[in-house]
Each structure stands twice: as C-alpha cells, then as structure tokens.
Amino acid sequence: MKHSSALLFLAMTCAMPVVAEEPTVGQPAPAFSGRDSKGNDVTLASHTGRTVVLEWTNPGCPFVKKHYDSGNMQKLQTTYTEKGVVWQTIASSAQGKQGYYTAEEWNTLITEKSMASTAVVLDADGSIGRAYNAKNTPFMVIVGADGTLLYQGAIDDKSSVEASDIPSSVNHVAAALDEILAGKPVTVSTTQPYGCSVKY
Amino acid sequence: MKTLALGTVLVASLTMSLSASDTANPVQAQLVSEVSSIGPATSFCVAVVLTMAPEWHTYWQNPGDAGLATKVEWDLPEGFIAGPLQWPCPSYMTDEAGECFVYGNEVWLLTDIQTPTALPPSSNVTVGCSITWLGCHNVCMPGRTNLALALLVSEQSVPDPEQTDAFAAARQCLPQKQPTWTIFQAAPGAPDRISVTVRLLRQDLGTIQTLRFFPIEPTELRQIAAETQAGPDGPMDVWILDLKTPPLAPSVGNRLSGILQINGKSDGAVFVDLPLLANPPTFNPPLELP
C-alpha cells in the first residue's frame, strides 16, 4: 500500500497553526475582523445584540454542494435573516486552493447561487477559520446576542453527500436558532461536524 | 473433468465485475469473488476493490475529521446473508485542518456471504452491490457504482486459484481479533484525556518503532502522543499512549474501541476494545514478560 502519510506528516509539522484556545460553547466566541465581498469591514463585535451564524463554505466541496444545489442552505439563510439573524458565510480557502475566489468572483457566485446570507467574508489567510478551529466545510457556528458561543458543529445529523438525505435529517442549525429566538437554551449545542477539510 | 474445466473458465470471466460508469473518476471499483462456484450452507468471501489514482485516497470506516467512509449495500438472492465489511488497517493523514484515516493506491474490502441450505444445483446466482465512496486529493469527488457477479452453484464452494494470493494478501491487512499484548487504561488525566499502557511481549522487544491508535468512531479518543517507557526488562517493552477526545466530541465515553497500527504498516494491526473506567484501578504489570 502506498504511504504518502509520511510526507504529509512532515508537511503538517512545518505548518502547524497556533490555536490559543479551543472555542467552547458557553464561553465568549472568538473575536474576528475581516472584509466581505462587497468591501465592507466585518467584525463580530459590530453585531452585538443580534444572533450571528457563521457558515464555512467551499463551493466545490461535495458536502457543500449537497446543501446549495438543493437550495437547503439558501432557504436557511433566507428564513433566519428575515428573523433578524446575521448570517456570515466565511470563505477560508487559501489562494490557489479549491474554494478561493476573489471578491468579484464571490459576488457573481452570490447571484448565481441565490445566496441569501448577510455577507460573504473573505478569509483567505485563514485567521477567522483558525480562531474558530474550523476543520470542515460546511462548519456551522452560532453566536448569541451577548457574544456567547451557543452552537458549533455539523449542519445536520447525516454525514453524506446526498441531497436526498436532507428531508429526513435533523437540521441542528434550525433547531438551535428556533430555541435561541424563543429565548430557550440550546438542547444540542455541540456536534461533530462533517464535510471536506478546510483548504488553509 | 471436462465439464468442470468449462464451468471454471466460464465463471472465471464472471468473477470480476468492473465499474462501467464514469471512467473519469480517479477511483475505480471492482467486485471480486474468492470462489469460482458456491455450495449450499457455507460461506464464501467477496471483495470490493477500490483502485485509486496516484495521490487520491478513500476513507476508512471512521474517516476522521473530514471525508466519508465507503459504503456497500448488498443485493443478494433469497436466503443469502452478507456479513459486515472487513476494513483493513488504514493510513494516517494529517494537515492543517485535521486528521483523516484513509486508503491509498488500492484497498480490498472483504465480506463473507452465507449461502442458504437450499440452493438449486447447477444454476447461476447473481450477487450484486451498490458502492458509494468519496475520493479526495486536493479536491473531493464522490463516486457510486452498481456491480454484480454471476456465480455458478455446485455441490460445494470451489476456490478460484487465480484469486488465492490476492485474498491472502488482503487478509494480511485486516486487524487481528486477538491482541497478544496486555493493553490497559492507566490513570485518568483531564476529563477529555486518557492514558493507555501497552505492554509488549518478550519477542517484540526492540521491534516496535511506532504505534498508532485509530478509533472506530469520529467522536472517539484520538492519539496525540505515543512514548516508550523502560519496564522491568529494559527499554521499549512498555508504550504509553496519550489519547484525547476531538474538540467537538462529548466526553471520553465508556469504551475504547479501535485498532492499533504497528510501525505504520498495513499488516499486523490489532483490535483494541477496553472498557473505560472513571477511576481505573492501579495496575502493577508482572515483573516477568509473558
């Protein structure tokens, strides 16, 4: 059997990111600042007072396609932004890797895919991804109005690339947002995410 | 004798079923039978063989932090029962985004299929399966295919001599069910960490350079370090594995289930299955190695 693992291990030890602390539900969510595809500055702090969803994406990833080609992600974005939730789609792919697009290209994609998030945040240096220890696309985070981390993990409970699994899946993000908007504690606040790896 | 030869030739061409769809996919699938004909009330082995283009990989039953395990669904004749997929020891892969448990080059996923008592003799039966996988390199490409094998029914199963070596090699890569070492949980660390001690046998002294634990489930304990420790008989007869739950997993759980890979090789891996205790008893290893 081929062992490419040795080379990859070496590459990994040279490129190890420094994650000071692991983000924890119930603790303050890591701060971040960046720029969106329309050129606006974006910070987490500017949204104090509103619930914020962070959605890590890579349009080429089959797991992301499952939720976008089916319209599932856009429906969530529309439903909850209409209820006052701020929805930030985060693009943490490094330049030269799958999922990286310029601001202009993102604006075209937003129209093409009928994306309804508040903004697409360009995180090509991966600093926001690393602050949140994002390993996957899709990876979903919910931050409460007071800045507390309320949910992190998978979008739903079926790890697959099949859109046909969506109707029978439990959507963790919708469930958590419904509880938050009703002033209730989040029942399922941490799940193991699934997806492609983030292309730092 | 002549009839048997003819039957074997006929079936030999049917014991390997190639993936006809999507030749552009960097992963190609085949269904291979160990036997050229099957008998009643017995079990025979088939393999789903995934061949991957250079640098591409598919995933173990626990893919790790990303990816998707290969899935096989069987379409069998009446009375046939397929056992679980037998997963060979994977390779360890890591990058900035996390760790994954993968196969490269080629992987044989074996399954034992039981035949019913009543099988109409000298007939053909078709064993079918639907395979889905995720192949990744810098990008990921899902794949799926349906494969089928026609197998002749005879009085008893007849091994296909052309497949004997391949199946023997495939079985070498399966973890052993009975670990020969003493593996036990040591004192607990933080709530999300445990320490596992592996006590080698005398014959292994000096031969083990690395050990790696692969958990069966994505949420289970992951190895963050492995160190040797001098025991009563000198260096390297005791290994201490430092294991931690992944960041988004719940607590440590009540069982350690997985496989222990030796020296980064695909053969010789052992199954690990330990109950995990909140307060493990202090274990004093015997002074004499078994």
Quick structural gist:
The complex is a heterodimer of chains A (200) and B (290). Chain A has 200 residues and is an alpha+beta fold.
Q: Layout of SSEs?
A:
The complex is a heterodimer of chains A (200) and B (290).
Chain A: H1 5-14, E1 33-36, E2 41-43, E3 52-56, H2 62-69, H3 72-81, E4 86-91, H4 103-112, E5 119-122, H5 127-131, E6 136-137, E7 139-143, E8 149-153, H6 172-181, E9 196-197
Chain B: H1 2-12, E1 16-18, E2 27-33, E3 35-38, E4 43-52, E5 57-64, E6 71-75, E7 81-82, E8 91-95, E9 98-104, E10 106-114, E11 124-136, E12 140-153, E13 158-159, H2 164-172, E14 182-185, E15 193-199, E16 211-215, E17 222-231, E18 234-244, E19 255-262, E20 270-275
Parallel strand pairs in B: 3-12
Antiparallel strand pairs in B: 1-2, 2-4, 3-13, 4-10, 5-9, 6-11, 7-10, 8-9, 11-12, 14-15, 15-18, 16-19, 17-18, 19-20
Word description of this protein:
The complex is a heterodimer of chains A (200) and B (290). Chain A is built from six helices and nine strands; from the N terminus they run αβββααβαβαβββαβ. The longest helix of chain A is centred in the N-terminal third of the chain and has 10 residues, at 5-14. With 200 residues, chain A is an alpha+beta fold. In chain A, strand 7 (139-143) and strand 8 form a beta hairpin. Chain B is mostly beta strands and 290 residues long. Chain B has two helices and 20 strands. Chain B has helices spanning 2-12, 164-172; strands spanning 16-18, 27-33, 35-38, 43-52, 57-64, 71-75, 81-82, 91-95, 98-104, 106-114, 124-136, 140-153, 158-159, 182-185, 193-199, 211-215, 222-231, 234-244, 255-262, 270-275. In chain B, strand 17 and strand 18 form a beta hairpin. The longest helix of chain B is centred in the first third of the chain and has 11 residues, at 2-12. Chain B starts with a helix and ends in a 15-residue tail after the last strand.
